[in-house]
């Protein structure tokens, strides 16, 4: 065998005619058995691979959270960028938050309607709708909608910046990407979700009251009485708000992490957007469970 | 040096790619913005309707391609199974826990917990939450795939070959989605009922025999649930295929189309849920 296999092989093959003319004639490259790079892993291997991947992502999010916390604690967050993101994420999401909340309230009442009619518990409708809406459904659905709109957009944006090397450019200019790009987005997203959930709570109750009036003939005053008659307390509202903050943290961390971790050009951005939407939806549900249990 | 005032343009990746061109015109405000929004809503509703109708047409008259449908069934169904199982498992636990808490405040009798939960699950919860999840996963996938085909002009190539992209791209996804959404929703109802049963047993000491009570589920509930399965399964590929086909502006446009697909198909699920639930309540009460 004339072809020496070693670290210098590739360099010499690219070296041009001078080397080739001194040695053997430029024969067609010898087919060396390649290491099976992309053999389809299967079974346990795949399981372990995906586990390691999830662990790496979660660990990356934790590291990112630490960095953000350091910037926030030392107040090194770009204020103008924060306000701009707050506008883009918060104000621009208003329409879908409004639509989602109104329909959510209506759905809660429609689902409760047969039970209410069966037991004749018209006075309890406000309580029933309010309990589910405030504690669970409004934070959950708002977070899911904001995940689709803001989280995906954020990942696409950061990913495009990574692919077009704008983040490296920031580093070259000695601008800290975390305090200029990531921390403002993180704060804006958490605040957006918190405020949207407060807004959605109110609107969902409005939608529920209207639907109750139309569908079941429960006057809004009766609905309001059911809501405030003591079966619901402030703890139910704060429970939903705590959840919204947790969801906001999950959303922001995962969209930033996936956005910064984009590899492979423009198709990579699409893959990252898909992955972040799925991951944050799963994360929202899993954390919802743990938050529900720790709060009660 | 330009001062960083409020009129500084966003980065190119910050929104729909067309906004850069349109920013030359003064930003519409007030009634003008409202009217523009209404017009664009009306236009996209009309486009959606036409995509839906031609999808139905090609389902009947189009090419027969079981291979493509099977591939999409694998993509939509099998690949969502794990995700849906995790999410619906947690939803089951959360819902039973919250419902138990709620019931304990008025009547300390939890024997009907399982029956009520099962009724709610069949009628609404399983279909809606699972469809929201599918809108996220499947919708984003469909829009990203078709959108990148649009951007790389493969869809134009299809049109040049006198092949309607709706027949080639959306119809297989439509059929596959209607079938697999129904299967996935039935599976996710089973998963969340099982985890709910475990939660009720461990948190509230409701025995599985008591929890497994199908007395409240009647034909109306089943019909409502099935109608929802079919409606969501039809809506998700149509809405996200439409936003994939209307992609413009290069690779950033694909990201934007993905976002729009997720948002619009989730909204479609919520609106359809409201409509079907209200209709079912009025019919079956």
From TrEMBL, chain A:
Keywords of this entry: Membrane, Transmembrane, Transmembrane helix
Disordered: region residues: 1-41
Stretches with biased composition (Low complexity): 1-24
Transmembrane segments: 51-73, 94-113, 186-208, 241-260, 272-291
Recorded superkingdom: Bacteria
Coiled-coil portions: none
Cited InterPro entries: Permease_MalE (IPR030802)
Name by which UniProt lists this protein: ABC transporter permease
Natural source organism: Sorangium atrum
UniProtKB/TrEMBL annotation, chain B:
Keyword vocabulary terms for this entry: Membrane, Transmembrane, Transmembrane helix
InterPro entries: Permease_MalE
Positions with biased composition (Low complexity): 1-13
Transmembrane parts of this sequence: 81-100, 178-204, 261-284
Region of interest: Disordered: 1-21
Superkingdom of origin: Bacteria
Keyword NAD in annotation: no
Protein name, UniProt field: ABC transporter permease
Species annotation: Sorangium atrum
């Amino acid at each position: 065998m004339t072809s020496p296999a070693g670290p210098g092989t590739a360099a010499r093959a690219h070296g041009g005619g001078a080397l080739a003319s001194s040695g053997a004639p430029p024969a067609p490259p010898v087919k060396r058995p390649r290491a099976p790079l992309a053999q389809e892993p299967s079974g346990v291997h795949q399981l372990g691979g995906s586990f390691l991947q999830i662990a790496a992502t979660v660990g990356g999010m934790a590291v990112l959270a630490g960095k953000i916390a350091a910037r926030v604690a030392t107040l090194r967050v770009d204020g103008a960028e924060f306000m701009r993101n707050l506008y883009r994420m918060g104000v621009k999401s208003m329409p879908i938050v409004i639509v989602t909340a109104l329909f959510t309230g209506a759905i809660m009442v429609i689902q409760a309607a047969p039970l209410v009619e069966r037991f004749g518990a018209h006075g309890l409708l406000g309580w029933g709708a309010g309990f589910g809406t405030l504690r669970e459904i409004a934070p959950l659905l708002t977070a899911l909608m904001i995940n689709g709109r803001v989280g995906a957009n954020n990942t696409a944006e950061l990913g495009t910046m990574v692919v077009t090397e704008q983040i490296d450019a920031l580093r070259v200019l000695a601008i800290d990407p975390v305090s200029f790009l990531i921390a403002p987005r993180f704060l804006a997203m958490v605040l957006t979700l918190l405020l949207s959930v407060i807004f959605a709570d109110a609107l969902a109750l409005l939608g529920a009251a209207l639907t109750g009036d139309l569908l079941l003939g429960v006057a809004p005053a009766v609905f309001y009485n059911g809501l405030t008659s003591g079966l619901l307390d402030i703890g139910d509202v704060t429970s939903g708000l705590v959840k919204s903050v947790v969801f906001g943290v999950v959303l922001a961390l995962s969209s930033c992490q996936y956005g910064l971790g984009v590899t492979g050009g423009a198709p990579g951005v699409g893959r990252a957007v898909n992955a972040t939407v799925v991951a944050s939806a799963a994360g929202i549900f899993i954390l919802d469970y743990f938050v529900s249990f720790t709060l009660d | 040096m330009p001062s960083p005032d409020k009129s500084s343009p966003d980065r190119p990746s910050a929104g729909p790619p067309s906004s850069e061109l349109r920013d030359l015109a003064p930003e519409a405000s007030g009634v003008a913005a409202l009217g523009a929004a209404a017009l664009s809503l009306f236009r996209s509703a009309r486009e959606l309707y036409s995509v839906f109708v031609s999808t139905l047409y090609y389902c009947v008259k189009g090419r027969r391609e079981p291979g493509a449908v099977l591939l999409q069934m694998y993509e939509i169904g099998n690949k969502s199974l794990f995700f849906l199982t995790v999410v619906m498992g947690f939803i089951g636990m959360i819902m039973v826990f919250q419902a138990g808490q709620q019931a304990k405040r008025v009547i300390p009798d939890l024997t009907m917990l399982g029956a009520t939960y099962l009724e709610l699950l069949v009628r609404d919860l399983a279909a809606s939450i699972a469809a929201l999840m599918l809108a996220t996963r499947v919708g984003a996938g469909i829009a990203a795939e078709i959108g990148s085909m649009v951007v790389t002009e493969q869809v134009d190539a299809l049109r040049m070959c006198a092949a309607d992209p709706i027949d080639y791209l959306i119809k297989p996804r439509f059929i596959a989605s209607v079938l697999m959404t129904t299967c996935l929703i039935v599976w996710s109802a089973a998963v969340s009922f099982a985890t709910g049963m475990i939660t009720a047993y461990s948190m509230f000491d409701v025995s599985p025999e008591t929890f497994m009570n199908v007395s409240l589920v009647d034909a109306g509930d089943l019909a409502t649930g099935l109608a929802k399965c079919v409606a969501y399964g039809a809506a998700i590929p149509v809405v996200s295929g439409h936003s994939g086909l209307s992609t413009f502006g290069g690779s950033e446009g694909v990201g934007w189309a993905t976002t729009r697909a997720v948002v619009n198909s989730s909204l479609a699920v919520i609106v359809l849920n409201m409509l079907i639930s209200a209709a079912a309540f009025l019919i079956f009460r």
